[in-house]
Structures are given as structure tokens and as C-alpha cells.
């Protein structure tokens, strides 16, 4: 399979939503194989953000196969997400010009807050309108121009501690870049801080990242956190993943409460 001699390699699914990833294992090697990875992967590898890309092959059917060495690595714990090294790697990602250049070359355009909201409006048409959803949209619409920020960088946009890997040589990586976008860095910052860092530690974490915790940054993070919660909830509802959709609905309710408490005029 995929150019690997089946007499020497055992191929198994690596799981994941897309079903496009595999583990190839021989006596001496263990590879992570992915079908039709974006060319963006090569830049991420060159920047040291993902494990090193070993080779790329184009098959006769047009599929492109990439191979990375499977690391002896572990996922970060929830507690470790508040560490200085996470802040610094995220800053490195957000400052990388090669990442922006390649993603733009692949057709990704910088996303404004208005574009985020327009996409959400289209998604909302496919789902029942619940009071919590309506409430969130009122806030998003009222503040859409206020949160617009001129700096647009490559954002992972699916920050989760399971996507952060620490290898046996103490190197930190951020994997699973299928949802990468060019947008306000507040997209990633909000997911990280809301998800993993206590509010009284936000200023210190952002200091390690290189930002000051201003009122405008708080607003931007909250706005994008609310928008992404709706995005993920709609995504799971569309695929009848009801357990996950309920979890995002609960998160939406909590964010709405925070909106009333911290961002009401």
C-alpha cells in the first residue's frame, strides 16, 4: 500500500475524522502516513512546528502521500497548556512569514471578523434557531466591526491539548493543521486561554507570548471564542455527533453568561 512493500510493513488506521491517516510499521521503522496532505505540511516541518517530513510521493492515481517519522511522544496535559513553552511556540507560529506565504499561495485569504460572521450566518440557516444561538448572534453582530484587527497571521484554529506533542528529546510540536486559517491571532489565543488557563493567570501567560492583556484583546478573544463555539457546534450537529454538539452547546451557554457579565454596554 502507498508504495510500501506489504511484505515488510504493517499498515493500520491512525484514526481521526477524515480516515486519511495511517501508521506504517516495520521491524525497524514506524511512520505516520497521510494521504493528500497539504503542501503546507512541508513548511510546517521546515519551521520545526510539526515532526520532520521524511518524504512525499505522488501516486499514479494522483494522490499525494507524505511520511513522517512516528515519534516517541506524549500529548500535553491540560495543566501544561498554561506553560511558557506553549506560549512561545504559538508566538513563533503567529510570527512566521513562510507560513502566511504558503497558506496564501494555496488560496487561503485573510479572514475578517465580517467574513467569520457571514459564514456563520450561512451555517445557521441549516440548524434550528435556539435562544442561546440567537443571543450569541446578537453580540457577534453588535461587535463585529469593533473586534476587527489589522494583523492577520496563520492560526491553527483547533487548539486542543491532544494536538500538542512533547517528544523524548523534549521538543514540542503542534500537529493536525487541517483547519489552518489566516486570521486574527486572537482566534488561537482565545481557545488557549479560555480552555486551559485560569483568568488570573492570563496576563502572565500573554506576557510570555509577548502581548499585553488589553480590553480590546479580551473582547477579540471572547468574540472569536463565541464564533468558533458556534462553528464547532454546527459542525457536529450536521454530522449527528450529538454528544459533542451538546458539549459545545453547554460551552455556548457559559460564554453567553460571560458576555452579560463582562461585555455588556
Automatic annotation (TrEMBL):
Classification via Gene3D superfamilies: 3.90.1200.10
Domain Aminoglycoside phosphotransferase stretches: 40-218
Source organism superkingdom: Bacteria
Alphabetical list of SUPFAM superfamilies matching this protein: Protein kinase-like (PK-like)
InterPro entries per UniProt: Aminoglycoside_PTrfase, CcrZ_PhaseVar_Mediator, Kinase-like_dom_sf
A Pfam family it matches: APH
Protein name as it appears in the record: Phosphotransferase
